[in-house]
């Protein structure tokens, strides 16, 4: 990645981000089968819900949506799936959206959905309660495509927040981490910053500095999650803006 690009990443970027999920997609044909499958299974676990939400908003019932989402994941593991992946299509979300659109059309044209053996499944959607999560979404007239964009953005936000929570827990313990996350998200049960500072046995000034750093770290983690889904020719800040606009 060029250091002169406006999408330059922080110098302390973890090494695992040198291979982004987009590069995993683009290079899947050349990797060893075991490594490719492991990486792609992780990709599916990370981004399954925008796919499911898209299919449901296309009007399919829960059981059919689960079947189509699962069969799409199986399709992802087939190496010719990536024949259409090119650097010019450097946004993973756009590539997957177009792919699931095509998969849904093929599925609907089929006389009956192909049955998959249990061992072919990557993840159990039943355990993840996809329909319960879908029913919690606000009712709105969004198209399925717009819903996909929104759920993609929410997925990246959730992943960034989970990473921040893990970092704070490792450093400060679960109770302090939980309170700081609540303060960050505005869910500290009506407690002021001063009250949280007192609870955590620190000064107001120190708490303000800590929250400033936490907000900065969260923004960095979110940007890293976005960078992990685009190729090097895509401006990370532009992609981040597009995702936030989808909300």
UniProtKB/TrEMBL annotation:
BP-aspect Gene Ontology terms: DNA-templated transcription initiation
Q: Which UniProt keywords apply?
A: Sigma factor, Transcription, Transcription regulation
Gene Ontology MF annotations: sigma factor activity
- The reply to whether Transcription figures as a keyword in the UniProt entry is yes
Q: What residue stretch is flagged as signal peptide?
A: none
Stored PANTHER family: RNA POLYMERASE ECF-TYPE SIGMA FACTO, RNA POLYMERASE SIGMA FACTOR
What is the name of this protein? RNA polymerase sigma factor
The source organism is Roseimaritima ulvae
